[in-house]
Design goal:
The chain has 453 residues and is α+β, with helices and mostly antiparallel strands. It has two domains: 19-354, 2-Layer Sandwich (BirA Bifunctional Protein, domain 2), CATH 3.30.930.10; 365-450, Anticodon-binding domain (Rossmann fold), CATH 3.40.50. Helices cover 41% and strands 19% of the residues. The chain has helices at residues 19-38, 52-59, 85-96, 138-154, 166-173, 181-189, 193-203, 210-215, 221-238, 241-244, 255-267, 274-287, 348-354, 374-387, 401-410, 421-426, 444-450; strands at residues 42-43, 49-51, 69-71, 77-80, 103-112, 124-133, 160-165, 292-293, 304-312, 321-328, 341-347, 365-369, 392-394, 415-419, 429-433, 439-442. The strands form three sheets. It has an eight-stranded mixed β-sheet with strand order 1-5-6-11-10-9-7-8. It has a five-stranded mixed β-sheet with strand order 13-12-14-15-16, with helices on both faces. The chain has a three-stranded antiparallel β-sheet with strand order 2-4-3. A hairpin with an 8-residue loop joins strand 9 (304-312) and strand 10. It is elongated. 34% of the residues are buried.
């Protein structure tokens, strides 16, 4: 209990970052941003809160159970952003549709989800991501995936890349009634393979090759996937027209499900193009990216259209995914002209759980002085702050010279600059190295030069 009132704790699922934590996070982010900009990606930012409709359009009305929503004083429904892809595409539709393509954008920001906090998962968390907007070619997909892999590696994290392709699984899903599709997708996502087999058998759809597709791994999986695509085409020809052509528009139990299905159809083309995916894999080989072809990577069907990928890392337990992304079409859902984009989001907090940062902040330089020359000490500190990259600190507590020197030692100062009446008269200030105690009288220019300025 604090004197005069109750101690107020931070909200559950949030964190305070002390100076050492903030330095580590800043160092990792700085390295990632430098890499992004070397690849030609430009930084953008979007509001922390958006209209709620932005997220219900993208993910359906059930998303409101997972996010922070509120009404403003004008009665408008708003939400703290739970992710950054939708806000970035909203910004694209509002501001950048006429910009030359492709657009290469990167961003970093805090997001919010109302969920049970656990290791690596918080109610407020940070996401770093990138989007390449305006190209539907394998070249764009390969570039984005290679960039994601390099970003993870730049943080010193060994990532395990898995690459999937939704074109084939989408073709299979279109032969399953729309009302059943969410349940099937949930079973796939949760890897409930036994229950999935039972569900497919119950619907009479166990002949579609979905289970086999989900089992395919590695480069050779592409060959078997092409065989499955041929089998699927034959199966489609044998199905009644209303199932083969309109399976995705089958009966739905609610208007919301109908709307979700319609949005999925509008957002995602049905083209099955395995040669396109094979070229992505080939280009990644040229980039020197190692990964596993994995048709179990799904990431939902609402707006992803083709290649999808995830990166995993050890040391995080069950929550080991640190990056996810793929190719999608979302602009049309947000009122813009449809365009293909490829992007990814990196869970920055998960990266920080396992990254080792060797870099430490530079030790400060303390300017210490006697009271009668305080003005000159301020001028010395001002000059050094302009000339040096290291932090320069000045006493603001009214301490004497001895206590100032003791304080400089306690904060780990590498050097102190002593300013007294004689130093001011001679325009030579005493520079003391704290580790050795050695000192010398130097001009302000000589001190700046000696300390790296």
């Amino acid at each position: 209990m604090a004197q005069g009132g109750m101690t107020i704790e931070r909200p559950r699922g949030t964190r305070d970052f002390l100076p050492a934590d903030s330095f580590r996070r800043g160092a990792v982010r700085k390295g990632m941003v430098e890499l992004l900009e070397r690849w030609g990606y430009q930084e953008i930012s979007t509001p922390t809160f958006e209209h709620l409709e932005l997220f219900t359009i993208k993910s359906g009305p059930s998303i409101t159970e997972e996010i922070y929503t509120f009404k403003d004083k004008g009665g408008r429904d708003l939400a703290l952003r739970p992710e950054l892809t939708a806000p970035v595409m909203r910004m694209y539709v509002n501001e950048l549709q006429k910009a030359p393509k492709p657009l290469r954008l990167h961003y970093f920001g805090n997001c919010f989800r109302y969920e049970r906090p656990q290791r690596g998962r918080f109610r407020e968390f940070w996401q770093l991501g990138a989007e390449l907007i305006g190209s539907d070619r394998p070249d764009a997909e390969a570039e984005v995936i290679a960039l994601a892999g390099e970003l993870v590696g730049s943080a010193g994290v060994a990532g395990d890349l898995h690459i999937g392709y939704l074109g084939l699984i989408r073709s299979i899903m279109r032969m399953i009634p729309a009302a059943e599709r969410p349940a099937v997708m949930k079973l796939i996502d949760k890897k409930e393979r036994g229950l999935l087999a039972e569900k497919l058998q119950e619907m009479g759809r166990d002949h579609l090759g979905l289970q086999e597709l989900l089992d395919l791994r590695g480069r050779r999986a592409l060959d078997r996937a092409e065989e499955l695509a041929e089998d699927l085409a034959e199966i489609s020809e044998d199905l009644p027209p209303d199932e083969a052509a309109a399976g995705s528009r089958g009966p739905s139990t609610t208007d919301a499900a109908k709307d979700r299905s319609a949005r999925s159809d509008r957002a995602a083309p049905t083209a099955l193009n395995l040669p396109h995916f094979r070229e992505v894999v080939d280009l990644l080989g040229i980039y020197g990216v190692e990964g596993t072809v994995d048709f179990q990577i799904v990431r939902g069907l609402e707006y992803y259209t083709g290649t999808v990928f995830e990166i995993y890392a050890s040391g995080l337990g069950a929550q080991n995914q640190i990056c996810g992304g793929g190719t999608y079409q979302l602009a049309g859902l947000l009122g813009g002209q449809e365009t293909t984009s490829t992007g990814f989001g990196i869970g920055f907090d998960r990266i920080m759980e396992i990254v080792a940062v060797d870099e430490t902040p530079p030790p400060p330089i303390a300017v210490v002085f006697v009271p009668q020359v305080k003005g000159e000490a301020v001028r010395v500190a001002k000059t050094l702050r302009h000339r040096l990259s290291a932090p320069v600190v000045l006493d603001v507590m009214g301490r004497g010279l001895g206590p100032q020197l003791k304080q400089a030692s306690s904060i780990g100062a590498g050097y102190v600059v002593i300013v007294g009446p004689r130093e001011v008269e001679l325009e030579k200030f005493t520079l003391r190295e704290m580790a050795t105690g050695s000192q010398e009288a130097l001009s302000i220019d000589e001190i700046a030069e000696k300390l790296g300025g």
